[in-house]
Design goal:
Blueprint: E1 3-7, E2 10-13, E3 18-25, E4 33-39, E5 46-51, E6 58-60, E7 68-73, E8 78-83, E9 92-99, E10 111-112, E11 116-121
Parallel strand pairs: 2-11
Antiparallel strand pairs: 1-3, 3-8, 4-5, 4-9, 5-6, 7-8, 9-10, 9-11
Length: 122
Amino acid sequence: QVQLVESGGGLVQAGDSLRLSCAASGRTFSSYGMGWFRQTPGKEREFVTVISWSGANTYYADSVKGRFTISRDNAKNTVSLQMNSLKPEDTAVYYCAAGYGTSLIARDYRYWGQGTQVTVSS
C-alpha cells in the first residue's frame, strides 16, 4: 500500500511561483511512477506531469511545459512539483498519484492523494 498526502497549495497572483509536495508512506514508493494531475469543477482530471520510478524520465502536458518541473526523492519518499509563472488557468485542485509506468491517463494510477487547492488570481 502507498498513502499519499499533498501539501503546499495556496492563493497566489499570476506570475508567482508555488511548490507542491507529496509525502508518501509505504515501503514500495520507489517502485512507482509518480504523476501530478489537476481538476476543476465540471472537468475531468487532467494530466500535468509524470516522473518514472528512477527519475530518469519525465513528461509534461503542453500547457505546463517550460513552467512546471517535477522531481522526486526516493530516499525521503517525496515527489515535488515546482510551478513557476503561474496563470489563472492553472487554478485547480492538484493531486499526486502513484502507479506503474509513466502513464498520462488518470485511470492507470493506483493510489491518489486527497489533493491540494491552488488558486491563481489575475
